[in-house]
Every structure is written in structure tokens, then in C-alpha cells.
Amino acid sequence: MLRHLVVPDREIEGVLSILREEDLLGIGFLIVPSSAEGFRLVPIDDAAPAALPPPLGSYEIEERKGVPDKRILADWLSQLEDLIGKELVLEKGDSWPSSHEFVSDMMIVRVDDEVAGHVSEIAEAKLRSHPHIRLILNDEGVQGEMRVRRLTPIGARDGDTIFLSKIPSRLCNTRVLVRESGIGITCDPARAFYSTKLQTERLETVVLAKRLREMLGRPIRVFDPFCGVGPAVGALLNEPELLGSLAASDLNPDAIEMLMENLSRWDNRNYPKKSVPLQRLYDDRLAGVFDATKLRNDPDLVGKWDLVLVNLPHRTIELLPEIIPLLDLDTPSLIRGRVVVPEEEIAEVNRELVRILPPLLEGEPLPSLQVKRDYSSSLRLCSFEAWIGSKIGAPTGI
Ligand SMILES: C[S@@+](CC[C@H](N)C(=O)[O-])C[C@H]1O[C@@H](n2cnc3c(N)ncnc32)[C@H](O)[C@@H]1O
């Protein structure tokens, strides 16, 4: 018997990407219709824990025999063995790229130097074992301030034909539409930062934003000054009555061009077809290219926001003094951020956050870095939320 999540049809794509991200999808089994109309059963990996992480834990579970997916001929390492022999596969051991990220019909892998000579065989094996994938890209790491990944096509499929060299340019298009938590997101991971792995993070931000709305008793005003193509604001806009005003900006004009397309889709209004400098596009909407290191110089932006997102993990702490003036300190507010820190400095950064931030909101926990994953052998990628008290009222004065 295999556990299946009972998922409403319209939430299937979102649940699938979380299951993939958490490595909990029952690979090799099909999604099947449920006896309840409008629901389907999504297979969960045998090794998944009994208590699934949020939001997966909120779905009902049904136990039934898994229906094998005959399209998946074998896992990718068996395909690789078929191409280069079992001995070589064993010899290189952990160097083979075991994990990958799906972005629509593309698969992004990281090929270790140790196995770089076998990049074509890796691509072919991955394409054979994932029949829905069009393009395999080798991730050579993020570049520069805009955190854009250098992605090289290493294999592609056109019908029954697999290309491992001289890949036709029509198959190398990296601009795609992904589905995430019920919304479509235009992204191009070769031109602007976008990661499917942040979906859980975004859902957690929505939960925090709803608490803030409850606290304030009105829709909240949100600023995302490192918005990329806008996935975090998309998740917030998807919640009815959650957002009042919104500002979204980024340094990367390519990201802003895709943000505008996404906003037109999510916000049911027209946005510019091209990237524009940060400007007021509607009474309650600001969007465009802007350098967040200059935020506090703009009187139109300062002191106006209830929730500010800070997703530039290598510079978050350094940039907090630019971000803090954006908050409206007349009422409680929230900063939601991500930080990359050495493991042994986590406690010190927690103390530093309390030092830098305005007086915190009484009754809420102090900001504390939550480790989300290893960034390298010594660095950890962490998230935090900091509830800021109102100047009017009773600040804690911590
Ligand atoms: C880690 S990405 C996060 C993007 C987006 N929030 C997301 O979750 O997909 C950081 C973003 O910050 C932008 N960025 C870097 N430096 C910046 C600056 N000085 N001002 C504004 N944006 C900046 C990059 O272009 C990139 O899109």
C-alpha cells in the first residue's frame, strides 16, 4: 500500500512542486482520480515521515495501491549504467549529480568537476528517465549582484530525438511559465533569479502576513525591494483582501520586465510591457527598477509600509539600516528576511538583529535565525521574521 495525499484539482501543481522540493514525491507512481469529485490522489514517497511538513500536513491521506508510471523506464543512474557501464558509475560514486531542480519542462543540474567529462551521458540519462523534460541545463553557479545563474544547455529533446550537442536554439528557450501555489509565474532562470525551492518560504510569508493583517485589522502595505520576477508578491496577491498597497522593485531590468508580465496576470490590471524605473503605476501600486541601497533617500517610500521582505541573503544584515526607515512605525510592522551566515555566528547575528532593529513588538518572540539548509560546508541559509512595535503605544524598549 502507498500513502496518497487527497488534493483539490486546482492545488495539484503547487503540492507537486512542494513534494519535489522536499523530495517526498512517490517517484514512479501516477497521480490518480479520487472518489471525491474535484480531488486527485498524489503518491507520497515510502520514506516520507508520518507527520508531513506544512502545508502538506493539512491534506487528508488515503492509503491505496500505487499505480506504476510505465513512462519512467528506470531511475537515471540505471540509465547512466546503461550508457557508460556499472563500474564507472560506481567509481565516481557521490560525484554524479543526484539532485536536480525542475523549472517547468526544464531540469537544472550541477555537474561536479569530477564527472564533467561525462556531461553528455549525464544529460542523456536524465532525459531518458524524465520523459516530460525538454531541456537539461548545467548550473555553473550564480553570478554577480543580480544572483543570476549561469546555465549551459547540455541536452534537449524534440519528440523522440535527443540532442546532446549542436542543440537547436528553438529548444534552448529558458523563459517559461511555472505553476506555484495556484498561480502562474513567468520566469527565466538564465536572466533573473528564480528558485522553485523557495516555495515553502513564500507560503510561510503568507501565513505571517495574514497574522499582521489580523493585528492591524486592515489589508497590509507590502514592499519587496529585492523582488526578482515577483514570486513572493504573487503568493501574497493570491490571498484575497490581504494586500492593500504594494511596491516591488529590483536592480535587474530583466527581472522587472518579467515582474510586469506577472503583475498583469495576478493583479488583473495592465502593467508596462517593458522594464521601467521604479514609479507609481496605480494609486496603490509601485513597481520598477531600483537600487535598494538608495531606498531611504526617497520620501515617497519612507515610513509607508507594514511588511518589508529582504531576500538578498549575503547582504541582508548590511542593508537593514536602509530597509528599516521604510516601515511605518506608528503601527506594528514586520521584516521578513533571509541571511547566509557561518553556523557558529548564528547566535551573534541574532543579538545583532535585536541591536539594529527598532524596539520590538511586545508579546512576539525575538527575531531568531531559522536554518533552512546548508549553503556550503560552513555557511547556513537562514530565515527570520522580526516583529516591530509601534512608536505609539507600548514599545518594549529592548
Ligand atoms: C536572492 S534574489 C531574490 C529574488 C526574489 N525575491 C525571489 O525570491 O525570487 C535577490 C534579488 O535581489 C536583486 N538585487 C541585488 N542587489 C540589489 C540592489 N542593490 N537593489 C535592488 N535589488 C537588488 C537581484 O537582482 C535579485 O533579483
What report would you give on this structure?
By secondary structure, this protein is of the alpha/beta class. It folds into 3 domains: 2-64, Alpha-Beta Plaits (2-Layer Sandwich); 76-174, Met-10+ protein-like domains (GMP Synthetase, Chain A, domain 3, 2-Layer Sandwich), CATH 3.30.300; 178-388, Rossmann fold. The protein is built from 9 helices and 19 strands. The chain has helices at 12-21, 76-84, 86-92, 119-129, 199-216, 231-237, 253-267, 316-323, 346-356, and strands at 2-8, 32-33, 39-43, 60-64, 101-103, 106-109, 135-143, 148-158, 161-163, 176-180, 183-187, 220-224, 243-250, 279-282, 285-289, 307-310, 333-342, 370-374, 379-388. An 8-stranded mixed β-sheet has the order 14-15-13-12-16-17-19-18, with helices on both faces. α5 (199-216) crosses α6. It is globular. The model is unreliable at 394-398 (pLDDT under 50). S-adenosylmethionine is lined by residues 145-147, 192-194, 198, 225-228, 231-232, 250-252, 255, 291-293, 311-312.
Give the CATH architecture of the largest domain: 3-Layer(aba) Sandwich
Computed structural class: alpha/beta
Unreliable sequence segments: 394-398
The name CATH uses for the topology of the largest domain is Rossmann fold
Output the keywords.
alpha/beta; Alpha-Beta Plaits; GMP Synthetase, Chain A, domain 3; Rossmann fold; 3 domains; eight-stranded mixed beta sheet; 9 helices; 19 strands; globular
